[in-house]
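Hello forum,

I keep getting stuck at the same step: I have a sequence, I want structure tokens, and every attempt I make locally crashes halfway through. Rather than fight my setup again tonight, could one of you with a working pipeline run this one for me? It's a single chain of 359 residues.
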Amino acid sequence: MPSPQEVQLLTPEGVRRGHPEYPLDISPEELRGLYRDMVRARRVDSEGVTLQRQGELGLWPSLLGQEAAQVGSARALHDDDFVFPSYRDHAVALCRELDPLALFAMFRGVSHGGWDPTDHNLHLYTLVIGSQTLHATGYAMGMAMDGAESAAIAYFGDGATSQGDVSEALNFAAVYNAPLVFFCQNNQWAISEPNERQTRVPLYQRAAGFGLPGVRVDGNDVLACLAVTRSALRRAREGQGPTLIEAFTYRMGAHTTSDDPTRYRDTADIAEWQRKDPISRLRSHLFDGGWADEAFFEETDEDAEALAKRVRDAVRTMPDPDRFAIFEHVYADGHALVDEERAQFAAYQASFADEEGGK
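Reply #2:
Ran it on my machine without issues. Output:
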């Protein structure tokens, strides 16, 4: 059972629950869509782990276990809302219709930007912990000043709440009534640091200190994440200000592919959270309700596998970027220091050709 403070609409067994504050009217077609989103995201994510292990990517941060938090919240967004992700929000990117190859090009190191944020109203991934919350706050304040009827959402993890940037963002957003949703995916580990080493109170309770509402949601329940985020976005669009959502979930994999979680995590915890798997619970709900059969699940798996194959084949044949491209678009006009650095790099590259010629 969830804690009394945690919003849950779908139990780990796939049984639908009601909630007086967060009613959700959803069709079987929409349920199947949420299931497809989570399956696709998990398969793309697992392909990322495999490709990194094969030496095709420099790094990959897995989202395993967090599919419901990301898909549920992302599907609550309108097209004109703006998203500020962290660095493992691959399911959010897929829901915003971003080609996954843009993500893989970044982690392969052959892209110097990733994508145009205005194409999908999706900001670039942010690797500096917590800084995207400030970016989102400023953007949302601008939305309000422009009179836009849209909102922004900022994704971050529990570890980011220990950064001053997040506290500053919460304060500014509250004071200026910014149309913003702070969406914290509390996967309980800031790399190797557990929650109890980061905070003495549940993270959603911090909202009260900044003068905005906070709510904790079962982060493995895609329906609850959808309903709660939809409600918070509605408040933002109606001029009622920001909300802090804490999606209580669990990072089933490593922090990134350079991490070894077996050094600091108890395997019993993993087994417990496997029983709360977000995809399994929605599958049970669909099957038991008669809204999906085995043929649907097989077709969904096949589609996800086809997407993974497209990613795999494309990543292995991605061309390297022009070595001098990194010096382009740094400034709108020429800059003496950049010109000097470009010349030094050119001389460095030429030295290899001289060595080869001298052999």
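The radius of gyration is 22 Å. If your local run keeps crashing, start a new thread with the error log.
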